[in-house]
Design goal:
Length: 282
């Protein structure tokens, strides 16, 4: 049985349908995970994630980690019951009143007490050794940030072989890209870094997407961006960004064309990038 099978009954379900026993279990286990002197802060950001947040928090409640941690939440002006989920499970959380992923991540970073800060997206579930594995990597000499990989939840609309091929192609591209341009291979849902250095560099709030890569670029002068490809650090998520392009094949085609156009660039390093006009917040 897959490690995330336990959380699927509450994934993509309205909070009103969540079993009281499940909510109570998540609340009790989250409380057990909280430390007064955390080495790592696990920061969950959410915008209208009522249907997925409980499953995410349940996976965090099941973490097996030898490092002291704290888990905190940020609600980015959700219009659904996201804040109620945070309240129901007793998680320390704050409302960020300026919309935008960058603002939400910055809100979590500003409250972090741990030496390390792990980004968590509310629509994603994390394996039981995820936090420990990410911190293991951050504890290595000269490492200032680390990113891992992710898979998609199998369903009736996506074949197992199709998902396997899609993820293999994507992971191979990210791996090749990571040697010279690691900032292009990190993703916010599986990203962790040194808290103090991240505050020094700052998280951009003037762009629609790419604040994680921008942060990684800013961290590069301070040390190495590492990548964890172990199964125990592989998160599982829904089809949010993939489904925007249509079918899995459509998504693969769009991303493959983009990757091929930029193929030459992965063999050279880059210290700055020009912002795309359509990615700037007005």
């Amino acid at each position: 049985m897959k490690w995330y099978a336990k959380f699927l009954p509450v994934y993509e379900k309205p909070f009103a349908e969540a079993p009281a026993a499940a909510v109570a279990e998540v609340r009790a286990k989250l409380a057990e995970r909280q430390s007064d002197k955390p080495l790592v802060t696990v920061s969950v950001i959410a915008y209208n994630e009522e249907r997925r947040l409980l499953a995410c928090l349940w996976s965090l409640a099941e973490q097996q980690c030898r490092y002291p941690m704290e888990i905190i939440g940020t609600d980015n002006l959700s219009k659904d019951r996201t804040a109620e989920v945070f309240e129901a499970v007793g998680l320390p959380w704050k409302r960020e009143t300026t919309p935008g992923c960058g603002h939400a991540r910055l809100c979590g970073l500003g409250r972090a007490r741990g030496k390390y800060h792990i980004n968590i997206d509310a629509d994603t579930m994390y394996p039981p050794r995820y936090v420990e594995t990410m911190v293991d990597a951050l504890e290595r000499r000269d490492v200032v940030a680390v990113s891992s990989l992710w898979s998609y939840i199998p369903d009736a609309s996506h074949s197992a072989f199709g998902l396997w091929f899609y993820e293999l192609a994507r992971d191979t591209h990210l791996w090749l890209q990571s040697f010279n341009r690691p900032e292009l291979s990190v993703r916010g849902l599986v990203f962790a870094y040194n808290t103090e250095l991240a505050r020094k560099v700052g998280i951009r709030t003037d762009i629609i997407r790419g604040e994680d890569g921008s942060l990684a670029l800013g961290l590069k002068p301070y040390g190495r961006i590492a990548f964890v490809r172990k199964r125990r650090a592989r998160a599982v998520t829904g089809y949010g960004t993939v489904s925007k392009d249509g079918s899995l094949m459509d998504s693969f085609r769009v991303r493959a064309v983009k990757a091929l156009k930029g193929l030459g660039g992965i063999f050279s390093k880059k210290s700055e990038y020009k912002d795309e006009e359509d990615n700037l917040l007005k």
